[in-house]
Task: inverse folding
C-alpha cells in the first residue's frame, strides 16, 4: 500500500508517517479464543508540526456481529523518536521551542538509525484509572515493537506492572497485539485487533 507523506511533516516523523490517520476495526480480548470477548476500536494518529505523533484510541465491547454493547476504554499519548531533547524542542510545560525543528533534514534523522536498520522510539500512553505507561522500542519500516520501561499507578489503581505492544502494516491494514502483566501474573495476551484506515 502506498501513502503520501504530508508536506508539513517535521523530518523526524517520517519513520512514523505510515501510522497517521484514523484506523477502525475489530478485535478480541485475551488470547482470541472462541470464548474471548469482541471489541471495536477507533485509533487516531495525528501530527501538529511538532516532533511527535499524538495518539488516541477508543474501544467498545461488541457482540459477535459487531453491535456495540458498551464503552470499553480510552487511551491517549504521544509517540516519537527516542533522542535527547534540546532547545529546539518544546517543554517542559509551555516553554516554547525554537522556530525550526530540532532535526531539519532526512540526513539528520538518518544519524539516529539503529544497528538493526530501524529507529529507537518512545511512546507515553495514559489510561483512565490513574495509569500511565512509558514504552521504549523500535520501528523498522511498517513494524513497531514496544516494551514498558515504567508503569505509573495511582494509589487506588488496579494492579498492572508491565506490557508489550506489537504493531504492523499488512496489506494496508494495521495489525496490533498487546500483552500485559497484571494481578501478579507475568505477561499474558490482553488484546489484538485488525484496523483498516478510514481517513
Result:
Amino acid at each position: 500500500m502506498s501513502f503520501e507523506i504530508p508536506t508539513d511533516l517535521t523530518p523526524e516523523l517520517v519513520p512514523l508517517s505510515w501510522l497517521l490517520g484514523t484506523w477502525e476495526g475489530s478485535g478480541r480480548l485475551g488470547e482470541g479464543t472462541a470464548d474471548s470477548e469482541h471489541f471495536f476500536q477507533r485509533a487516531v494518529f495525528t501530527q501538529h508540526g511538532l516532533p511527535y505523533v499524538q495518539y488516541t484510541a477508543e474501544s467498545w465491547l461488541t457482540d459477535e456481529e459487531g453491535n456495540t454493547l458498551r464503552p470499553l476504554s480510552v487511551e491517549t499519548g504521544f509517540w516519537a523518536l527516542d533522542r535527547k531533547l534540546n532547545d529546539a524542542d518544546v517543554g517542559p510545560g509551555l516553554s516554547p521551542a525554537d522556530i525550526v525543528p530540532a532535526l531539519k533534514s532526512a540526513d539528520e534523522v538518518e544519524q539516529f538509525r539503529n544497528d538493526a536498520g530501524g529507529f529507537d522510539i518512545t511512546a507515553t500512553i495514559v489510561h483512565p484509572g490513574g495509569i500511565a505507561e512509558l514504552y521504549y522500542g523500535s520501528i523498522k519500516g511498517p513494524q513497531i515493537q514496544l516494551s514498558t520501561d515504567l508503569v505509573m499507578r495511582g494509589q487506588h489503581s488496579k494492579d498492572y506492572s508491565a506490557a508489550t505492544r506489537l504493531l504492523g502494516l499488512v496489506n494496508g491494514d494495521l495489525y496490533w497485539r498487546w500483552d500485559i502483566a497484571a494481578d501478579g501474573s507475568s505477561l499474558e495476551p490482553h488484546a489484538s485487533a485488525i484496523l483498516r484506515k478510514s481517513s
